[in-house]
Design a protein that fits this description.
Shape: globular
Radius of gyration: 17 Å
Strand order of the largest sheet: 1-2-4-3-5-6-7-8
Oligomer: single chain
Distance between the termini: 26 Å
Helix content: 40-55%
Number of strands: 8
Number of helices: 11
Largest sheet: 8 strands, mixed
């Protein structure tokens, strides 16, 4: 069989051009998985997952509006806008239904997408994310981050951010992952970083609709995640009817990058069951 290549493509959606990786299934695929990155990263964080997909599954990793190689358009970001971009993307690509895999902000987008168009979603993989809106304290932290980026630029922000998202083991033993994240952050414009921080601060709470999720859902969390609280993910596990929850040792906020083999094993098993 010919090697399946991960192709880089662009597609026009409303006021933006979305950049995405596309790995087509070898056979007539009944399953498509769409990967949604966290803030302030890009689609490159999903390379390991795309490379390891089973032959009968099509994989797509998007650059969210304004991130990576996707354009920013009008520049007014919200989790709502990101979710609606995803709906138009699905329509343009003629994808009837997809499994969504989101980490952190990607999880917020996936949960909002399920509220807006559940009929298009076949399953959910939610990693190091939760359903709650920001508290006032969390909002204030984001506003302080905006001020710091405006005053000092992207570089110190990238260094501080990467120290926060990774486990001690990753920082010590996986310099490639750390560098990938630092360079991803630096590649975003200051405007994108600030606009997305506002989008995160203003997102709606999706907790009440967790009980209405009728598709299989896999919840994954890095055991050393300093950003997403364990109790917030356990609360989601309790609320979503068809759910499984697992922790990944020696991983922080980005287990798909930190311990990809284990993340991929959970992903493969789930994709076979959906």
């Amino acid at each position: 069989m010919a090697e399946r290549l991960i192709k880089s493509n662009k597609i026009r959606i409303g006021d933006i051009s979305i950049s995405y990786y596309h790995k087509k299934a070898k056979s007539e695929s009944s399953k498509t998985i769409i990967f949604l990155h966290g803030f302030p990263f890009n689609k490159n964080m999903w390379r390991e997952q795309l490379e390891n997909l089973a032959d009968h599954i099509t994989g797509i990793a998007l650059d969210i509006r304004g991130h990576g190689n996707s354009t920013a358009g009008h520049g007014f970001f919200s989790i709502d806008v990101f979710a609606k971009d995803l709906r138009v993307f699905l329509e343009k690509m003629e994808i009837e239904e997809a499994i969504l895999c989101g980490v952190s902000m990607g999880g917020y987008i996936a949960l909002r997408a399920y509220q807006l168009f559940p009929e298009k979603i076949k399953g959910l993989i939610l990693s190091d994310t939760h359903s709650k809106a920001d508290t006032n304290g969390a909002k204030q932290k984001r506003f302080d981050s905006i001020q710091a980026v405006l005053n000092h630029g992207r570089r110190p922000f990238a260094i501080g951010f990467s120290e926060n998202v990774f486990s001690a083991n990753t920082i010590e033993n996986n310099p490639e992952a750390v560098e990938l994240i630092k360079s991803s952050i630096r590649r975003n414009s200051i405007s994108t970083i600030c606009s997305t921080l506002l989008a995160l601060a203003s997102r709606t709470d999706t907790s009440q609709s967790l009980y209405e999720i009728t598709v299989p859902t896999l919840l994954l969390r890095g055991a050393e995640d300093k950003i997403t609280a364990k109790q917030d993910m356990l609360a989601m596990a309790e609320a979503i009817p068809q759910t499984q929850y697992f922790e990944i040792d020696q991983a922080g906020h980005l287990p798909n990058l930190e311990v990809p083999a284990q993340f991929n094993t959970f992903m493969h098993t789930f994709l076979e069951e959906v």
